[in-house]
Design brief:
single chain, alpha+beta, EC 2.7.13.3, Beta-Lactamase, 3 domains, five-stranded mixed sheet, histidine kinase, Helix Hairpins, disordered N terminus, elongated, 46% helix, Heat Shock Protein 90
């Protein structure tokens, strides 16, 4: 009774090992076909076969001769092969007490010879066989037995590789599914941010207009304290409006940007500079080396705009100067920089400034939302490029960013 239980447990573990390879009922593959063709050629037999023993069937992965898909396990010559690590050989099946009455033996031109080597896993389970069959009785020489074992030993490395590929594919699919879920969550959050920012702009405008109306109506009647508070309220409303505009820009980037087109970056930057100079007087030097490149115009323009605005709006110098330059990196990436002559940024803040809503200046004085540099990094990183800052206090600041060629 105990032996029966042990045999049952061993068979369950063997089947579990076989199942872990996910090989049953798969398509035929060249690597396994090549092995059976080689075996048939070496031993000069009409049938060579690689098969795996399931609970009630012998499933065939590859064979020479007419295609065989599966056989009943109880009638299989390979079943006894799983009982030992050695080669199982039947020189004449008609003389075998176990197979003499087998239909494939009693049939005209039936199977007369069988030899099989078990396929053994690294953990010691015999899950299948490589076997050869002939219509004439014969015996293997010692050299042939070694050759059959050697061929069988080539099956498991291929099967292990197959298992690894399946595991890798499974992990890849899992990673892709997780990435898609993250993208869906991100898209949903960006849609919410877009909707909220869009909806709140209208009441903000109404508050701003009301503040202007009150200021005009009171005119000289209002005390300096009231005018100061009205001005502060309008500044706060303006900052909130700028904040929502930044959120809208951030959401728009993820909602899609038009495809690449030829962009004259010198002309683009010059136009942005001219537009900013209407509000903030400054001197600009734009290098003639800025090239015409293939790029998504809106995305690239957004990067330049926010870096230029950052250089202008955070520069307290009266003689404000901006320089825009370019070079092609050794790894063939476009590299641009925007240099200013401001107060500089301490190294401790070089990473912080790219975080959303992160600033190092007085926000009310600057009307700064802390979104611009976040947007820049988002756009640049989505193109597998990078943006960084080089600066120390009281030496000005230079922002670099790369762009794919």
């Amino acid at each position: 009774m105990q032996n029966i239980i042990q045999d049952s447990n061993a068979e369950a573990l063997r089947l579990e090992s076989l199942a872990s390879y996910h090989i049953l009922d798969t398509e035929r593959e060249e690597a396994f076909n090549d092995l059976v063709n080689l075996a048939a050629s070496i031993f000069k037999v009409p049938i060579a076969m690689i098969s795996f023993m399931d609970a009630e069937r012998q499933w065939v992965k590859a064979n020479t001769g007419p295609e065989i898909k599966e056989l009943a396990r109880e009638l299989s010559f390979c079943n006894p092969t799983l009982e030992s690590d050695d080669i199982h050989e039947i020189p004449d099946t008609r003389l075998s007490f176990r197979f003499a009455e087998n239909p494939v033996v009693t049939a005209e031109n039936g199977i007369r010879f069988y030899a099989g080597a078990p396929l053994i896993t690294k953990t010691g389970y015999r899950i299948g066989t490589l076997c050869i069959l002939d219509m004439h009785p014969r015996s293997l020489t010692p050299e042939e037995r070694v050759m059959l074992r050697t061929l069988a030993d080539q099956v498991m490395p291929r099967l292990d590789l197959y298992q690894q590929e399946r595991e890798l594919e499974k992990k890849t699919q899992s990673t892709l599914a997780y990435a898609k879920k993250l993208d869906d969550y991100r898209a949903e959050l960006e849609q919410i941010a877009y909707a909220v920012a869009h909806e709140l702009k209208s009441p903000l405008r109404a508050i701003n207009n009301l503040a202007e109306w009150v200021s005009e109506e009171l005119d000289d009647c209002a005390s300096s304290e009231i005018r100061k508070k009205l001005s502060l309220m309008r500044d706060r409303v303006l900052r909130l409006e700028n904040l929502f505009n930044g959120l809208l820009d951030l959401a728009k980037v993820s909602r899609g940007i038009a495809g690449p087109q030829e962009v004259n970056t010198y002309k683009m930057v010059s136009q942005l500079v001219a537009s900013l100079q209407k509000k903030h007087p400054f001197t600009a030097s734009v290098s003639y080396m800025l090239p015409t490149i293939l790029a998504e115009k809106t995305a690239l323009e957004t990067v330049f705009l926010h870096l230029l605005k950052n250089a202008v709006e955070h520069n307290p110098q009266e003689d404000l100067k901006i320089e825009v330059g370019y070079e092609l990196t050794p790894d063939k990436m476009h590299q641009f920089y925007i240099q200013d002559n401001g107060t500089g940024i301490a190294p401790a803040y070089h990473e912080q400034i790219f975080g959303i809503f992160k600033t190092i200046h007085n926000q009310d004085r600057q009307n700064n939302t802390g979104i611009g540099l976040t947007l820049v990094r988002k756009i640049v990183r989505e193109r597998e490029a990078r943006v960084w800052v080089e600066s120390t206090e009281n030496t000005g600041t230079r922002f670099y960013f790369t762009w794919p060629v």
